[in-house]
Amino acid sequence: MARTVQALPIAGKYPKPIVHCTGRPETGKTQLAISFALWLAGLTGKPKVYVWPTDGREHEYAQVIGTEHTLAPNANPLDVSAVQDEINRDLRSKVFDPVGFFSVDTVTHIYRQASLSNQLKGMTGQGSSGHSLKAVTMMNVVTVVMAVNLPAFVITHVYDKSDHQNLEKKEQRESISETEEARWKLAYNLKIETGKDDKGYYVIVRECRERPGLKPFKLRDPEGGLFRTMPERIMRALYEKERPAEEPKGWKDFGLNKPFPDTGEQFKQNAVREMLNFFIEVDSIKFYAFGDPAKRPTKKNGDTGINGAPNYALNTYTKVAEEYKAAGGKKLGELTVKLKEATEERAQRAVQAYLTQKAEEAGEPLPPPVDELEAAPVQQGLDLGVPATEGSAASGYGGGAL
To answer: Taking phi first (over 0 means left), then psi (-120 to 50 degrees means alpha), and beta for anything else, what does residue 73 get?
Structure first.
């Protein structure tokens, strides 16, 4: 008997996501898949997820979603035909009725297995030659994804490809061929890429079938690679008229509701970087809170010397963070506000010292005195390598653009 088709089956707002997710190893692809499963379960009322686990990571789904809600094939996950047969039997047996999400994690190993089989057949002179086996295998994967008729998340990888003539020269390449990916575009409606840089984890939305000509855009993850809010942010950005607020782009954007990016140690490094780059501009002079981060180290008695700005910034971060934690504070937004206040106060002191000296030289009344900067003990282990930051004279602020 035929079924009724909904125009926007996900919460009446979004089409069914069939996602091709790629990215370098250890950039959160599996966590993003789990986040999609959790998000969809809340919207569809179907709590179970079916994982095709060629990466051996089905336990990660079970740890978050629950053992009773995580299904996987009994067949060898690298035997595409066996998995396809088992899934077809499960479909006929209604096993998929409470399933709301299908994940292939990952296609990379299936593709490698098919490539190896192809090479062995070519070496022994048995079976087909060329790329026919790989093509059939990959199309069978797509057929399985289409057959379950569920929101799906299919993972591949990005690697560095070395030039054998020049090992220093590297180019990015997908773990599947360009030909296979071109075929996949007929099946998937969304391509995204996970990544990680010195500011934390992010997702780049590359392509969307319903948005032809889409300009790729990046969304940063404030949860340190868990991506729990990312599925809804992606779908809102693509399918709702109003896009989510832009990611913070500078000092003024950070605050109670937009803390410095990421969590843990990464939050600390991002915060110190922003603090280092903050300045107030007076008389066309930039007064950094902790000294110019791009200033060359001062040489003393033949020593190479150091630039003390990172040390001052890190010392201030440690002092503020420890005091906030000792007072029972746990929110990164509140800590961000306190770090900004401490940084701006130091920059204001530097400005005040400059204005005092200027008034003395001009014989004008002196402004109120200011305290000297306290000495900062050297703290090891933070090499930020902060470059000079160009700021806006009109705004009086600069630095730390995300």
So the answer is: beta
